[in-house]
Automatic annotation (TrEMBL):
Annotated compartments: Membrane
Protein's name according to its UniProt entry: 4-hydroxybenzoate polyprenyltransferase-like prenyltransferase
Cellular component annotations (GO), alphabetically ordered: membrane
Alphabetized InterPro entries for the sequence: UbiA_prenyltransferase (IPR000537), UbiA_sf (IPR044878)
A Pfam match: UbiA
Membrane topology note: Multi-pass membrane protein
Main location: membrane
Length: 262
């Protein structure tokens, strides 16, 4: 389980599940979303540790079971393949359009692991996959409605900001092991600024996109503005925590806005 990237796997699955519940999915529909997203995220997490095992060993990563605990790569490969195979029928439980959108989002995660991670296009899978994920939840509603314009945009901004924030604690290790994605090419200052501004933009879209913002949503934007300012001034570790706090607010704003179709 430690090799599947537990925190992001649980966080993304809970986000999609909460969004499905807020959108009025039946209990069975909510369970279907949770199962599809959960297996998809497991496959992405396990494949990431599998592909990166040599780089993780070179970087001295002590949190990777394949590197420090002798976990067999073949076992991780089998787990990733099993999760991916299970994800296909589970995704299509929500319908053809929803299933296709979700599987495309999962494919983005695999594309990141298998090459895009180390290129200037490293942010693209995050933007595309996090746009498709909430869209797939809406497409699974009765009648398969078109997602509102702001929902995939907010998801793309949230995913892109999370990508920049996620690399902040690992910039030194990435430099040692030759990871040259877009954030690593921008350097610490550029990464902090990109993470803060992208996540703040996601908050604005989530609040203003549906129209008629409530008082607490405006208050959330004020909190985001304050955290964004802190994130631009603090060192990498504290900036990472500030960015994660903004990401949590973004998720709450998107879920609270619901999945009203366009």
């Amino acid at each position: 389980m430690r090799a599947c990237h537990v925190e992001p796997t649980v966080a993304v699955t809970l986000f999609a599940t909460a969004l499905a519940a807020a959108g009025g999915r039946t209990r069975a529909g909510v369970v279907a979303v949770a199962a599809a997203v959960g297996t998809g995220q497991l496959s992405v997490g396990w494949s990431n540790d599998l592909v990166d095992r040599g780089r993780d060993a070179a970087g001295g990563r002590t949190d990777k079971p394949i590197v420090v605990d002798g976990l067999a790569p073949a076992m991780v490969a089998g787990a990733a393949a099993t999760a991916l195979v299970a994800c296909v029928p589970l995704s299509f439980l929500s319908g053809g359009r929803a299933g296709s959108a979700h599987l495309a989002a999962v494919a983005g995660g695999w594309a990141y692991n298998f090459g895009l991670k180390a290129t200037p296009l490293s942010v693209v899978p995050y933007a595309v996959s996090f746009a498709l994920l909430p869209a797939s939840v809406v497409l699974g509603l009765p009648g398969h409605p078109t997602p509102p314009w702001w929902l995939p945009l907010a998801g793309a901004l949230l995913g892109s900001g999370a990508h920049f924030a996620n690399v902040l604690p690992d910039l030194d290790a990435d430099a040692r092991t030759g990871v040259r994605g877009l954030p690593q090419r921008l350097g610490p200052v550029g990464v902090r600024a990109s993470a803060a501004l992208l996540l703040a933009a996601g908050s604005v879209v989530a609040v203003l996109g549906p129209g008629h913002p409530r008082g607490w949503q405006v208050g959330a934007l004020a909190a985001v503005a304050g955290l964004t300012g802190l994130g631009l001034r603090l060192g990498d570790r504290h900036a990472f925590r500030a960015a994660m706090a903004v990401a949590a607010i973004d998720v709450a704003l998107v879920v609270a806005a619901g999945t009203r179709p366009a």
